Amino acid sequence: MKTFTAVVERDSSTGLLVGHVPGFPGAHSQAETFEELQENLSEVIGMLLEDGDPHMDAEFVGTQLIRVA
After folding, report:
1. Fold assignment, 1-69
2. Is 33 in contact with 48 (CB distance < 8 Å)?
3. The whole model's pTM is what?
4. Which pLDDT tens digit goes with each residue over 5-41?
5. Distance, CA of 52 to CA of 10 (rounded, Å)
6. Distances from the Cα of 42 to the Cαs of 1, 63, 64, 67, 69, in angstroms?
7. Exposed e or buried b per residue across 51-68, where buried means at least 16 C-beta atoms within 10 angstroms of its C-beta
């Protein structure tokens, strides 16, 4: 079993949750709930992995709070 980190945002125009795996081309989806998004992303990633291990363009490292004066 492989584990991937997804970044999740809420689309301000649709209200949907949008998730993507940084550096993994094609690994993105949207949904109304976190549970649905997790299922959708799992399905998409599973299909992408059928083509073999992905070439990751980047690695998720973390988030950073930026203060602007």
Report:
1. Double Stranded RNA Binding Domain (3.30.160)
2. no
3. 0.85
4. 999 999 999 999 999 999 999 999 999 999 999 999 9
5. 30
6. 11, 22, 26, 34, 40
7. eeebeeeeeeeeeeeeee
